[in-house]
């Protein structure tokens, strides 16, 4: 049963996930307003750790560094968008404006500055990034967004965020590069771009209107570009979920490197 009071299986047939997934066979999640076609998932698919992952854990600085006083790579405009009470920042830095690859670092604010955790490889939208996201543009929105709600096909791994577990997070089909999408929504965190805070990631409310897209999540990486979401390896999603704390007012700062420097 979802937090909306609708059986998860029924919700899976109704919900449109307009930011996540891929193009391919048997699934429609293309940020185009079409409903998701769901299918069975037997739990056999796994996502391997992407190369280049460091050994540090989120929220833990390396022993030889006190961490930067300011978040690196962010210009005054971007910094001004981060709420003053935010003590956790998921920083997603895209390789380029039109690139679908990026890196993710979780920072924790302390009395001496921002302590970085691991650097994780990630995917974003097929065509890169945009300041003006719309349905179907295949770009991830640039900006600073709160992280308030989580969920997934699998049981809660131990997060402090509200967690909606159920079959509504089932996905089948293939992505842009022919990779299977099964398991991509095992764990998700809603990115509060055009999302109503305090609702399941599956909620279809769009405060900015349907044309501005939505259903944009942090989710398990399937090995290729997304429609607008940000994806990291499965074990990293579990670490994020266990680390993010509503009391720390976590936000995600996301965009290509040049845009974040503004």
TrEMBL record:
Segments for region (Disordered): 47-73
Biased segments, Polar residues type: 47-66
Domain of life: Bacteria
Descriptive protein name: L,D-transpeptidase family protein
Species of provenance: Streptomyces sp. R35
């Amino acid at each position: 049963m979802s937090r909306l009071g609708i059986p998860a299986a029924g919700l899976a047939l109704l919900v449109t996930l307009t930011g996540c997934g891929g193009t391919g066979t048997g699934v429609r999640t293309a940020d185009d307003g079409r409903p998701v076609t769901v299918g069975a998932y037997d739990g056999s698919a796994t996502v391997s750790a992407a190369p280049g992952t460091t050994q540090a854990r989120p929220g833990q600085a390396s022993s030889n560094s006190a961490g930067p006083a300011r978040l690196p790579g962010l210009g005054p405009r971007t910094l001004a968008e981060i709420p003053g009470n935010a003590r956790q920042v998921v920083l997603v830095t895209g390789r380029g404006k039109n690139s679908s690859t990026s890196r993710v670092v979780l920072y924790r604010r302390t009395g001496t500055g921002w302590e970085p955790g691991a650097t994780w490889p990630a995917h974003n939208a097929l065509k890169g990034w945009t300041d003006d996201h719309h349905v179907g543009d295949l770009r991830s929105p640039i900006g600073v967004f709160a992280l308030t709600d989580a969920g997934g096909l699998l049981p809660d791994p131990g997060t402090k965020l509200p967690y909606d577990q159920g079959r509504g997070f089932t996905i089948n089909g293939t992505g842009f590069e022919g990779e299977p999408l099964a398991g991509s929504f095992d764990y998700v965190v809603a990115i509060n771009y055009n999302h109503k805070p305090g609702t399941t990631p599956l909620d279809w409310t769009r405060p900015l209107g349907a044309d501005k897209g939505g259903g944009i999540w942090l989710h398990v990486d399937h090995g290729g570009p997304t429609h607008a979401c940000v994806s990291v390896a499965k074990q990293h999603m579990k670490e994020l979920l266990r680390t993010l704390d509503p009391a720390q007012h976590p936000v995600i700062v996301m965009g290509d490197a040049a845009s974040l420097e503004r």
